[in-house]
Design the sequence.
DNA sequence: GGGTAAAACATGCAGACTGTATGTATCTAG
DNA sequence: CTAGATACATACAGTCTGCATGTTTTACCC
């Protein structure tokens, strides 16, 4: 045949297709209720392909999750104007985070299922590499600028990150986005010293 | 045999034994990695008994979870002295919550797996009936007393509840309990108007 | 207190899923 | 062009969940 496809592009296409199908199904049904036969059927391939490219079902989930986290982090970075004060940057970032999380099913995927499927610490590590890193740097900058008091940074990052997640989940549960944003901003502003 | 046992006590004993075994295994291994054969083996009965008393595996999990949430709520209520101001009561409650959550595996069970297994809203409803109710009332009282500003209560409750959870999870992940408490108290104190 | 209905439990079975082992086609490199 | 590696398909073993069907124990009524 004349349609020779190099192995590397073949691989990346297959991995992409599997992750696309998996992402859609995970967003709709969640991880547990999505079976590998369903995923490969939606992608038009067989389970052999899946298990050739991913060690197991959770490895596929991990891949999906990392792409998702990157997209969220991108939207946050895009929302932060460089000339603002650290605390105002946090405020902007909070709004962008809530907005980015309003993609249907995304809160369940990233905030509910990821820790359950991968374990709390591995899931936190993914967040650590993306949105949470921005949060921690923001807090550090705010403290160096004297905008917030002397609170242990690791703990404060964890607590605030969870507060952001709570706001996003509340929105997904029907709380008006405006109210959730008001609440998060009240918490951030409260840190001001 | 002379050891006739009335059905109601038989039922409550069996349900209790199953929930005890399940709780231990869930705390150790998590929900997904705990099989019903394991649970009934630890309880010294068969799967028939389990499926006679519980509709399915998640119903058993629900029972375990409700008992756990009650115990946590009890410890919080016990820590709040009635004569304190609303905001100080919140501070005491926060400490008690973090302490109550330090039972090994409890954060994973209640904060990680419960939303994943039961869904975010049903899990929140359980919390709503226990610890979260106290939080909301505390916030309402603090606002009526003029201690905190005018922030939408539902949203603020959700955000703060998540912040508490984040503190408890951070402790389970190795953050010093003292640091986590400091961070949570900083957030609570920040609400003071 | 005997006997029937109902509840409590045990056993056996069907369907589905995950992960792996093995087979075949396609690509790569010398 | 050919040997070997890589990509994928097919087939299989083991395990799990939920249900259906048995057996035993308790409840109730005459």
Sequence:
């Amino acid at each position: 045949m004349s349609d020779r496809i190099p192995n590397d592009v073949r691989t990346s296409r297959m991995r992409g297709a599997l992750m696309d199908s998996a992402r859609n199904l995970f967003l709709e049904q969640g991880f547990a209720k999505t079976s590998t036969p369903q995923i490969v059927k939606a992608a038009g391939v067989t389970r052999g392909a899946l298990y050739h490219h991913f060690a197991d079902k959770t490895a596929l989930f991990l891949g999906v999750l990392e792409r998702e986290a990157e997209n969220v982090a991108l939207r946050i970075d895009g929302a932060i104007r460089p000339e603002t004060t650290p605390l105002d940057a946090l405020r902007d970032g909070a709004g962008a985070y809530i907005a980015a999380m309003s993609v249907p099913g995304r809160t369940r995927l990233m905030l509910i299922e990821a820790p359950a499927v991968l374990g709390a610490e591995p899931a936190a590590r993914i967040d650590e590499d993306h949105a949470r890193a921005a949060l921690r740097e923001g807090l550090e900058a705010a403290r160096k600028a004297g905008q917030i008091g002397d609170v242990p940074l690791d703990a404060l990052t964890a607590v605030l990150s969870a507060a952001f997640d709570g706001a996003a989940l509340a929105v997904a549960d029907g709380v008006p986005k405006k109210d959730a944003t008001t609440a998060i901003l009240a918490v951030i502003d409260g840190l001001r010293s």
In short: Residues 24 and 33 of chain A are 13 Å apart (CA to CA). Residues 7, 10-11, 14, 45-49, 52-53 of chain A lie near DNA strand D (CB under 10 Å from a C1'). Chain A has a mean pLDDT of 95.
